[in-house]
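Hi C.,

You asked whether I'd gotten around to modeling the 439-residue construct. I have! Everything is below, sequence then structure, no commentary in between.
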Amino acid sequence: MGKTLPKTGTPRDAVMQQLKALHADDAKWKDGKTFSLVYFAGDEVSALLKDAYGEFIAENGLSPVAFPSLRQMECEVVSMAASLLGGDDDASGTMTSGGTESIMMAIKAAREWGKKVKGVKRPHLIVPASAHPAFDKAVHYFDVDYDHAPLLPDFRVDVAAMEKLIRPETVLLVGSAPSYPHGVIDDITAIAALAKSKGILCHVDACLGGFFLPFARKLGRPLPPFDFAVEGVTSMSADLHKYGYAAKGASVVLYRSGGLRRHQFFTYAGWNGGLYASPSFCGTRPGGAIAAAWAVMHHLGEEGYLNRAQSILESTKKMQDGIGKIPGLRVIGEPVGGVFAFGSDSLNVYELGDAMDARGWKLDRQMNPAALHVMVTPAHAAVVERFLSDLTQCAKSLAAGEPAPDGSAAMYGMVGTIPDRQQVDDFLVEFLDGLFNRA
């Protein structure tokens, strides 16, 4: 039998002790040994996020009438984000719980736009093969058609192939800035121009880069155009809880105009509980996430974001240069910021990942091609040399024929040999079901 509700309450101190004990085996993101999931901007910022979140922990963003403070903060967050990403006074949007919801809302808006404006019964969209799986999730939930466009050798989407996939039902083209797997920016100018020429929408997924690329550009990093400054871009997604350093979960979905945002909303006037209107996917919207995002943006300001972007760019260059000097390893593609992947033509990178796991480093695994994924934050500035030293030693040991510690290498190796992707999906369902089966 699984866990049941305690018969009597547990004292606060005892509950906190139990929480800390549960926390002990989690990834040690604060010491810079984790390369995904957490974007740590320092203890001072974390303390501010806790205080701001706590101040509004009970408030519900579903009702801007009951909580006008949340409405004001959300509008200011959206406005600041839009101005960073080339939006003008007509740009609009909403906050969401994360990148997945932002992407889902953009697709929902495109679906409704396609039905109401173009008269399409079953809308269709085209996304890069490297696009985040949130797009696949969204089309599954919203029952729309889509195609994956293939990638060029530089891992950017093939825009010519994208054009061939367009059909009368197509309502949306997608590009990434940057893509999560390889950190490269798709040719947004070409994608947006193609969309405009066909009279359809263009979404830029900047969940990862939306609060990093504008500051990297200000620091002199040469970047291709990727935001609302590009004619034809009609919507964008950008995560506040990534390089915006806000508390989980906070993101924004932005539109070039309010007219397109209206297609995102859901209203229902027939409920006996009263008139219902929801701006995004969620009903209840945690006020703490809105307040924390507003607080950190005001606290850091442009200067704070620039300083952290500078640290990330410097750490990334040191890491990439160091990886390039390790025999058998190479950075994949031409990443533009703090996110990249590296692979090998001579070593099993999954075994390399297991060897690094044994030393406390957490690197995500990737496929097609096999690679290890790195996401750099300010927390990594202090550990670059240690990381490269451990990586060098692990690669040297594997090259000498020493066995890797047990880990995920066998699983990834097996998955790579299965030609039927449905079998892999079925395996993942069983794996997920097992994880959440019982306490």
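If it helps when you're writing up: Residues 287-324 form the longest helix (38 residues).

Thanks,
B.
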